[in-house]
Amino acid sequence: MSTFLKSVFFLVTMALCPLSAQSAQPVMPSGQQAQPVMPSGSTAQPVMPSGRQAKPVMPSGNVAQPVMPSGQQAQPILPSGDTAQPVLPSDPPAQNVLPFGEIAANSEPTQFRQSTENAMPQQNAIEVSAVEDLMREHGVLRRVLLIYEEISSRLESGTPFSADLLAAAANIVRNFVENYHEGLEEQYIFPHLGRAGIMVDVVATLQKQHAQGRLLTDYIITNANDMAMQDPTQCAVMKATLDKFIRMYRPHAAREDTEVFPAFKGTISQEEYDSIGDMFEQQEQESFGENGFQSVVQSLEPIEQALGIYSLGQFTPTVSF
Ligand SMILES: [Fe+2]
Ligand SMILES: [Fe+2]
Q1: Is 182 part of any domain?
Q2: Which protein residues have a CB closer than 5 Å to ligand 2 (ion)?
Q3: Does some domain include residue 272?
Q4: Cα 238 to Cα 240: distance, rounded to the nearest angstrom
Q5: How many domains does the chain contain in total?
Q6: What is the pLDDT of residues 241-287, one digit of tens each?
């Protein structure tokens, strides 16, 4: 068969069999691409050529946003080789802001003060419940116990320290822990438990420990001076006094946190509990100013820094078993 006849035969065959081995393609206006028609309610995805991904059709001007699992953020798709840079509202100025509780060991106190004031939130703006209030006050007590522990250690080893630091810490105990915090416990917490007949013996012990603690603090305040701290006998008595205070108040605060405060909460209605919480906050502001708790915490920091016990990281052990 000649080449001419072969061509004629092929054209006739194609005209008679237009659908053989081909998919119907709708006729689209120039430049548009056909979208597959899916049954109503179907979530099937159009089949795309290998290596390509279907993109949802958005109304003009909209940009499709991928749905991400909760808590995840979509990352912009960048051309190959580009590196994504997060877009910030505005670049914050570089500042030496240290998170609360973290400070380089060799930082100057003045630098630290500025940094801390910038970094610490105004915690009194946050409403705290009565028990939360009491427990964070125990946090102040625990930090004083650490100061006492450091000074006790120095008294034993003969390492010098300024007696003013001890006096300052003891005055925080007197004003904040004893007169204020323990005053709240004795005025509000213990009477509620007594009326309910709950933990009566424990409360009696706690009250006795408050009284003994005040006697110990009397001694510490009276003798926290450089002259007394140069006398070996007085140093030994001071160390014993600090140790007694530490020994008593660690279990004291722990028992209150874990048993006494929860029991107190169980004896009163939610309305009464909220009312007592408001009263605690009001008394705190009246006693120590609008940012009362925060100011007490800040008064601890220079003492801790001067004694070299502020940096939290120093208490992390190196573990190698
Ligand atoms: Fe107490
Ligand atoms: Fe307490």
Answers
A1: yes
A2: 256
A3: yes
A4: 5
A5: 1
A6: 999 999 999 999 999 999 999 999 999 999 999 999 999 998 998 88
